[in-house]
Amino acid sequence: MAAGTGVFAEILDGDEVYKYYHDGEWKKAASGKSVAIINPTTRKTQYRVQACSQEEVNKVMESAKSAQKAWAKTPLWKRAELLHKAAAILKEHKFPIAECLVKEIAKPAKDAVTEVVRSGDLVSYTAEEGVRILGEGKFLMSDSFPGNERTKYCLTSKIPLGVVLAIPPFNYPVNLAVSKIGPALIAGNSLVLKPPTQGAVSCLHMVHCFHLAGFPKGLINCVTGKGSEIGDFLTMHPGVNCISFTGGDTGIAISKKAGMIPLQMELGGKDACIVLEDADLDLVAANIIKGGFSYSGQRCTAIKVVLAMESVADSLVEKVKARVAKLRIGPPEDDCDITPVVTESSANFIEGLVMDAKEKGATFCQEYKREGNLIWPLLLDNVRPDMRIAWEEPFGPVLPVIRINSVEEGIHHCNASNFGLQGCVFTKDINKAMLISDAMETGTVQINSAPARGPDHFPFQGLKDSGIGSQGITNSINMMIKVKTTVINLPSPSYTMGGSSHTSKL
Ligand SMILES: NC(=O)C1=CN([C@@H]2O[C@H](COP(=O)(O)OP(=O)(O)OC[C@H]3O[C@@H](n4cnc5c(N)ncnc54)[C@H](OP(=O)(O)O)[C@@H]3O)[C@@H](O)[C@H]2O)C=CC1
Ligand SMILES: O=C(O)[C@H](O)COP(=O)(O)O
């Protein structure tokens, strides 16, 4: 089945514009305006989505608010049951959704299918985890705090926040949307999703899977339109009780404008790969290829700078060069390793970083080559700190190597970054690895492997400009609830006597 056909036909207006989702129905924007989604490979309009207005956003917020009230009263096991159903429907329709990912964001075909399957698994795991952790509360007794008798019993439970606004980025539009939707729903919240423009149609298909699963009307809503046009209106909307955002610097701006509500932010990264003298260089080279070049470097967790000890740098660079030469470059439909980057402006930005490095004398391990949005993989050796590529994230298939003379120099470079998402260290000495891990100011350090967010139940967080809060299934559920306490006050202290007591002693 192709995208926009079969069960997905109702989300498309004729064969023209994809509809937005409000109150359990697929709708057209009243203005008749739409936003074009450009295929990164052909650079032609592939799809169109509705340009929702502020008035439409207001209506969506109202529906989300009232649907949440009923959803909060829905038993946990029923919420979980619906999530499991949505997960199964999502996986059943992996091919049409993957097709959208290929056309909208040039994700290699196999990776696109993997993203959808991973998303289904994430939703199922979320349902199971939610049932486990949301059904549990705490019971505290007052006499554990000095000066108190046992006269107060404190019961804690986990209550929903209300309406969660979810804003995922283009690079994992389905997976990073469900990583917000699943936790929000299992915790009893309603959801307003604003998909990225590139990736919106994949998101709309995914939302339809939740629709087919039979969630109540108004509980899940999806408004489309350019972030630059409706983004501020959404994030500053008084109806929003929590924002979960993944993307770039936009997140920093949102955190300054949003009201007094919980924020979950996963932003950019400049993940460093520190290579010590004793590292297994074949393992490092394989991980640099996987970490630096998969999805053409468009992952927040991509290796974005290699910090290699001078004594092994020549040998490492040769090994990486040999592997770069084997990468397949071309269209995502052919499942190439390197595919066009998401937009022309992104390609131009990457090219700017490459030209800056060229002017300042970096060693080009391959010739720089670009056709449209397709940029050939490029390893830049002998990069120095005065080059932009040493600090900025290209979000493309260009990887700088900085040669270091001590571990301290590597750690210093890593920590001088304004980002602090992940990092990795390669060495056979676990003691050194642990010391380096502790010294790196990043949310996660991988020892002897490239950075990665997954598996999706692992905690995932960035320090500094890389984020606020922590993701991962359990952390996201906990972030989308508030703790409520009820205290039972007894007229006099009451202690249990244990096994030897008799009721007659009361
Ligand atoms: N830490 C992490 O987990 C990840 C971080 N990133 C980072 O994101 C960047 C690339 O992703 P990209 O999608 O381009 O990031 P952006 O920050 O440009 O966009 C992310 C999302 O925000 C929306 N948006 C844009 N403007 C606003 C606004 N004013 N208010 C609210 N929402 C808005 C976008 O919509 P629209 O598309 O319509 O503009 C999109 O849905 C890189 O810097 C990368 O490092 C990416 C993925 C994961
Ligand atoms: O948005 C990203 O880039 C992802 O969070 C990275 O996920 P991954 O490390 O599992 O590819």
From TrEMBL:
One of its GO terms (molecular function) is glyceraldehyde-3-phosphate dehydrogenase (NADP+) (non-phosphorylating) activity. It is found in: Cytoplasm. InterPro entries: Ald_DH/histidinol_DH, Ald_DH_C, Ald_DH_CS_CYS, Ald_DH_CS_GLU, Ald_DH_N, Aldehyde_DH_dom, ALDH-related_metabolic_enz. It comes from Linum trigynum. This is NADP-dependent glyceraldehyde-3-phosphate dehydrogenase. Its EC number is 1.2.1.9. PANTHER family: ALDEHYDE DEHYDROGENASE (PTHR42991:SF1). It comes from the Eukaryota.
